[in-house]
Amino acid sequence: MKQLVSAPMLFVGAGIFLIVGLLLAFLYAPIDASTMGYSQKIFFYHAPIAETALVAFGVAFVAAILYLRSQDPKWDRLGVVCVRLGLLFSALVMATGMIWGKAAWGTWWDWEPRLTTFLLVCFLYVAYFVLRSVVEEEERRATFAAVFAIIAFIDVPITFFATRFLPAGMHPTVITTSGTGMPGSMFVSFFISMIGMTLLLVALIRRDLGVEELKDRVADLKNSIGG
Amino acid sequence: MTIEEGAKFVAAAYAIILAVLVLYYFLSARRVNALTRDVTLLEQEVRRRQGEAGGE
């Protein structure tokens, strides 16, 4: 059980990729020549964190479907963990995005498509936890949460494609079907950070799943001794 | 915007990321330790009660 919880190699691997990605971003990748200038360095963690948040919500979506099909509580646990981590990464995206926005555009916030739909994603997944907190019966709570996670996920692809289909906003589209839109040295730094952030998500999912399993074990043991 | 001006924003962004991720890591590590301790104590209590019930 302890080994499942700690997942140390994943954390070490994530740390190595993230540090190398950061070093490359500052020492190898050039300073952006556009109006963003040096503040563009925020991109090297901001974008991977955003992609990772959306991946976490995607896993929660799959877990919700699997729960509704099997009624197996392990899928509910995976859903909870992924939504919680998705929200954590989303909060980081919002915070770093606002700082970057202030530096590059001179404003902390703009109601443009990407930012607005991402904020909506955050509100939807906060509502997921509100829903869980008001349903006491375990199976009903898991079922309602799974249905809600499926509905909430509708906004995730809308957020991802917002800058592609609604290009009126300020948010740039970096990676398109025609290329990455950045020099090779920038892409290498970004890609390594992306691997690091994905490994970090996997490590955190494993650890948090271990926490949820331990919580269930504590509850079972308390029930078995009548306390 | 000069590099010095941009660097303040960059430093703030990376400081927030580092602080939040490190804080989350240590909070969850503390939670794991506390829950592992609870499980150990509760398992000992279950065994003790089973032993008592077996001895009666």
Proportion in helices of chain A: over 70%
Please tell me the CATH architecture of chain A by its name: Up-down Bundle
Tell me the CATH topology of chain A.
Four Helix Bundle (Hemerythrin (Met), subunit A)
State the distance separating the first and last CA atoms of chain A. 23 Å
Overall mean confidence score, pLDDT of chain B = 89
Q: State which percent range the strand residues of chain B make up.
A: under 5%
Folded structure, characterized:
The complex is a heterodimer of chains A (227) and B (56). Chain A has eight helices and no strands. Chain A has 227 residues and is mainly alpha-helical. In chain A, helix 3 runs antiparallel to helix 4, helix 3 crosses helix 8 and helix 4 runs antiparallel to helix 5 (113-134). The mean pLDDT of chain A is 88. Helices cover 77% and strands 0% of the residues of chain A. Chain A has one domain: Up-down Bundle (Four Helix Bundle (Hemerythrin (Met), subunit A)). With 56 residues, chain B is mostly helical. Chain B has one domain. Chain B is 95% helix and 0% strand. Chain B contains one helix and no strands. Chain B has one helix spanning 3-55. The longest helix of chain B is centred in the middle third of the chain and has 53 residues, at 3-55. The radius of gyration of chain B is 24 Å and the shape is rod-shaped. The chains are: A mainly alpha (227), B mainly alpha (56). The A-B interface holds A 1-2, 5-6, 11, 22, 31, 37-39, 41-42, 45-46, 49, 88, 91-92, 95-96, 99-100, 102-103, 200, 204, 207-208, 210-211, 214-215, 217-218, 221-222, 224-225 and B 1-3, 5-7, 9-10, 12-14, 16-17, 20-21, 24-25, 28, 31-32, 35-36, 38-39, 42-43, 45-46, 49.
